[in-house]
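User: Can you predict the 3D structure for this chain?
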Amino acid sequence: MSVAEYQGGAACPGCMAVPARGPGSRVARAAGSDEIVLAVPGVHCATCISTLESGLAGLPGVADARVNLSLKRLRIRHDGSATPEDMIEHVTALGYEALPLDMVALSATEADREGRDLLMRIGVAFFAMMNIMLLSVAVWSGAGGATRDLFHAISGAIALPTVIFCGQPFFRSAWRGLRAGRLGMDFPISLAIVLASSISVYETFHSGDHAYFDAAVMLVFFLLGGRYLDQRSRAAARSAAQELAALEVPRAVRIGAGGEETVAVSDLVPGDLVLIRAGGRVPVDGVIETGESELDASLLSGETLPVAVAPGVAINAGVVNLTGPLQVRVTAAGRESSLARMADLVAVAEEARNRYTSLADKAARIYSPAVHLLSFGAFGVWMWLTGGDFRFAINISAAVLIITCPCALGLAVPAVVTAASGRLFRLGLLIKSGTALERLAEVDCVVFDKTGTLTMGAPEPVDIGAHRTSDLALAAALAAGSSHPLARALAEAARRAGVVPVAVDDIREIPGHGIEGTAWDRRVRLGRADWVGATAGARTATWLAVEGRAPVEFAFADRLRPGAAELVAALHTRGLPVHLLSGDSEAPVADLAGRLGIADFHARVLPEDKAAFVERLKAGGRHVLMVGDGLNDTAALAAAHVSISPASALDAARVASDIVLMGQDIAPVAEALVVAQKAVRRIIENFAVSFSYNIIAVPVALVGLATPLLAALAMSLSSITVTLNALRLSRRRA
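Assistant: Here is the predicted structure, written as structure tokens:
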């Protein structure tokens, strides 16, 4: 990729996709609202989400609140009157811990710390469980009387401290919920652990035949194991926002009057000069002042080849400087960098609620109180049926509380959205709309713009090898003196062909006509057909004229965007109708359609005609995917069922589109259609798993066939099943 392509096509896909910012806001919104982002490490399920979102949405000045379950982030949009301290206080009142968070500082540190804490508690629970099991074997083998009571007492001495310590993640969450006047998902879990332990203590002091210390510790062990695996699974379904955050550089070398100094990136301001050594990641957006190098922009743009850069070239945060040191004048740093804005955009998309998520939230809100009613109802019924057998009734009640926890239901959608958005991001597609995946899965018709979409919008000489070397050398010499796109393309093609330009004197450019000079004591010209005395044809061309000789035509074609042919072929294979709309003239549009095998194409189409064409397809029952990049495509992009624009598109087109193609290769759009359909299938499968599990598990618990231990195993397995099913999207062959 050339410097020009880097500046125009791959530079700053994040800022291209994000609306311009207003004063005091992280991402400017249409309503001019500000936002606060907090870490909420205590959220685990759909009830946590609905409690926070509904509890904050009614506060004065708050427009809405959105929880990202995978990242455990709370994003609050407000009118500028709220402060992070106020929101932390309100979140705490709802029963959750809240911590300030700078989105630029997103990292895996918090997740790693949580994982280590859970793993440590799992180890303690496992050690205690094994020792209690040894004592339980003796009781199960027939030990009775004082020996049985002693073994129960020793088991209790091991189990009670273990349960108190290892159950802290559940107890703290349940207590916060109780203080806030709500019963979250961890309340029934905590209640079941406490009930199992209390019954065991009662049995021990009354010389009972059975104590359940082993079950209580095993319950904690398996619950912790399920929570740890869930936490690690969500970490494996690494979101695009986290991947972008991993590119952030915390410190930079600033060049000041006193020399070089290492400072925090957040301390840099526009106008500062920073040094980026070879092998380092660029920490800021800026313009190169001195130095030449190559940049690896593959993680941001999807381009695999290094990009050559020189003074005057704009570069973005997150790319890697490969070969030489650069001095860069800062244009944006920290929260204002394109990388931070891109991370904001991705996080917003991941938090968005589509109809499947709303269904999960509604189901969980209804489901949670029903669980408690069912549990207490089971206790009352079994107390009546057994004539007051408190121990038996309380065990069934605890089992029902555990087995019906709707954690799997709450994970059904977020896990899929996170996995799918992460995979699409790695393919080079940035999702801007929360419902884009669902709508993309429904596409049954595709409409393409031509220039800048299926082509690169850059002319490329055709059949250059058919020209005489002397003509190429002369044309290259004249073209080097012009900034016209055709001249530049011709000069570059000649250079790649190894042509050495001849010496041309008195070169001057005639605006609107071409360039002329003197070679071999003859006047030579390169430019328009009528200016050099030739007859123009249907093709785009420039003409070379040497005094006393017939003019020579150099024809051009718009260079195909990489992957365009593969994408159109894939769409045809899937049986999707493909349409080509262009404002260009008939000949180049027909040529491109022929090269790509598109049967339905239309030239000289006005912007309103493009939108009308899309509307007609929609009126016919089609779900249209529109792919375009120009101002004349904006109305059609907005009218389509779902829309995609390249990162090189104009601002208006990017704002109107649902998905941004970050790299130059357009072929990943075909795989995006497949990923979207699989994502919807995974969501439906997860709902089926969640409901099927409860249809089977609830009756089993109610009739007394599930102990608290078996209930804990079943609940953990259902949540893990849902998450692992979503993670199948992360694999190539999902």
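Confidence is low (pLDDT under 50) at residues 1-32, 103-108, 352-356. Residues 668-702 form the longest helix (35 residues).
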